[in-house]
């Protein structure tokens, strides 16, 4: 039977926690300070420890440091509102979760519901690491280069905890796949994983999409709508392009992170949620803070555990491994047996892939289609664009002292011109969403912001596409 150790100098807190933990089928032991807690650790090693951060003879972190990292003991810290930052520090060290006083017993139950799976989870992570060594796979991710193995190690460390994660990487590097892998290796894996592209939702609707709305709360609200935070309760919410979220909504997001409470649009009734947040951006988040695109306090809340995803050009032979995986998938779907000729393999390895994994996947699909149904090898399809070429009209000069806003404007307009006005392609090269590109063009007062015939039927597809 699982065993829990409760460490708190307040007898009422110890008794309340012991009662609810016992109801859940665990045996319990209690201690009022570090000395008593260490005695209990000798008597019986617990499966989970609930400890206050502030104790009469030290801190809960001291007890955490006494435990062998290989013991598999789950560590839950308890803190007052004034010491939440200390709880965040404990999460970075490896604590599984934290509780804020006064303790919400429903949250305790939610934590307990996840804990029995911890042993299986650690075993699964070990299995996945073995699979990585043999096949270059880690959950939903693929690759065995040194750069991506470092990412695997970071994910395996942070996944079982409750820490918020910030994924930073160029467009197309696989941020959503990394977020899904984090979720699958977490204690929340049996609950929902929801992905939201903050740059693809209208600013007028994003609050309703995030928090939901009541019937009649605004024109067109003919029924009650549950937002992402409500639907992801118990699971993971992935916020892609977080720097594109309106500043006024970032304030409300920060409040949810601090209190675990939110309100649907059109009501004053608070709803509790237990959601793990994973945020992502293809911009430098610190630069976004300086530009006023991301609140500093929200950045610190989301950036508890940052993970940088390497661009494909830095992953060596992972290109060939990924391309083959995409081709195998297409062969299975269509009942074909196509392979890459040597010339295509050489081209795949020599190209810099500015669009990263997403561009590679699209290329493999084009090559599979162009090769025809009678061929066993893929066609040698020319790559669409090579950004390394230096030809007339493909570069812009920005004088020293030019503001960042003006430099952005010149780069966006020049890229759009080089793409013949096709906004979907320009957005892909710039590493921003199509919605963001439209917003910038409207801001610049450029005619291109009103759309043109060059965009065709690609726009709806791009608007609904979240960054990988």
UniProtKB/TrEMBL annotation:
Family annotation (Pfam families): AAA_lid_14, HTH_8, Response_reg, Sigma54_activat
Gene Ontology MF terms in the entry: ATP binding; sequence-specific DNA binding
Gene that encodes the chain: atoC_2
Record's protein name: Regulatory protein AtoC
Ranges annotated as biased composition (Basic and acidic residues): 449-468
Sites bearing 4-aspartylphosphate, chain numbering: 52
Domain of life: Bacteria
Biological process annotations from GO: phosphorelay signal transduction system; regulation of DNA-templated transcription
Membrane spanning residue stretches: none
Matching SMART domains: AAA, REC
PANTHER family assigned to the protein according to its UniProt record, in alphabetical order: SIGMA L-DEPENDENT TRANSCRIPTIONAL REGULATOR YQIR-RELATED, TRANSCRIPTIONAL REGULATORY PROTEIN
């Amino acid at each position: 039977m699982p065993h829990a150790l409760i460490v708190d100098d307040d007898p009422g807190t110890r008794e309340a926690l012991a009662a609810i933990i016992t109801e859940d089928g665990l045996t319990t032991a209690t201690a009022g300070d570090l000395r008593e807690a260490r005695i209990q650790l000798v008597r019986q090693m617990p499966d989970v420890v609930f400890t206050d951060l502030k104790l009469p003879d030290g801190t809960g972190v001291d007890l955490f440091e006494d435990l062998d990292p290989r013991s598999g003991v789950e560590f839950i810290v308890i803190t007052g509102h004034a010491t939440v930052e200390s709880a965040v520090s404990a999460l970075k060290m490896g604590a599984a979760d934290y509780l804020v006083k006064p303790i919400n017993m429903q949250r305790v139950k939610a934590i307990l519901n996840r804990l029995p799976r911890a042993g299986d989870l650690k075993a699964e992570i070990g299995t996945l690491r073995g699979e990585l060594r043999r096949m270059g796979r880690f959950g939903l991710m693929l690759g065995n280069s040194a750069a991506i193995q470092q990412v695997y190690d970071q994910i395996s460390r942070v996944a079982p905890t409750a820490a918020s994660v910030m994924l930073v990487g160029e467009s197309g590097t696989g941020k959503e796949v990394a977020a899904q892998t984090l979720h699958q290796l977490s204690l929340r894996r049996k609950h929902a994983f929801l992905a939201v592209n903050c740059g693809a939702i209208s600013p007028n609707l994003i609050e309703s999409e995030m928090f939901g709305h009541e019937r009649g709360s605004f024109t067109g609200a003919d029924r009650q709508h549950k937002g992402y935070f409500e639907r992801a309760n118990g699971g993971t919410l992935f916020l892609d392009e977080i720097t594109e979220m309106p500043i006024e909504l970032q304030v409300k997001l920060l409040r949810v992170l601090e209190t675990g409470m939110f309100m649907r649009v059109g009501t004053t009734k608070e709803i509790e949620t237990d959601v793990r947040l994973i945020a992502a951006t293809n911009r430098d988040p610190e630069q976004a803070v300086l530009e006023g695109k991301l609140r500093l306090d929200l950045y610190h809340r989301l950036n508890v555990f940052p993970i940088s995803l390497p661009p494909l050009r830095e992953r060596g032979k992972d290109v060939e491994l990924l391309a083959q995986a995409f081709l195998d998938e297409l062969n299975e779907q269509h009942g074909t047996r196509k392979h890459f000729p040597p010339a295509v393999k050489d081209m795949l390895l020599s190209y810099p892939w500015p669009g990263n994994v997403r561009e590679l996947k699209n290329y493999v699909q084009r090559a599979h289609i162009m090769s025809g149904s009678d061929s066993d090898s893929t066609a040698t399809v020319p790559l669409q664009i090579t950004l390394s070429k230096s030809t007339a009209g493909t570069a812009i000069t920005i004088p020293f002292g030019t503001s960042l806003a003006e430099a952005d404007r010149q780069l966006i307009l020049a890229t759009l011109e080089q793409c013949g006005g096709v906004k979907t392609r320009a957005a892909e090269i710039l590493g921003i969403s199509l919605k963001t590109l439209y917003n910038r063009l409207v801001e610049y007062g450029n005619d291109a912001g009103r759309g043109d015939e060059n965009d065709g039927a690609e726009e709806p597809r791009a608007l609904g596409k979240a960054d990988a």
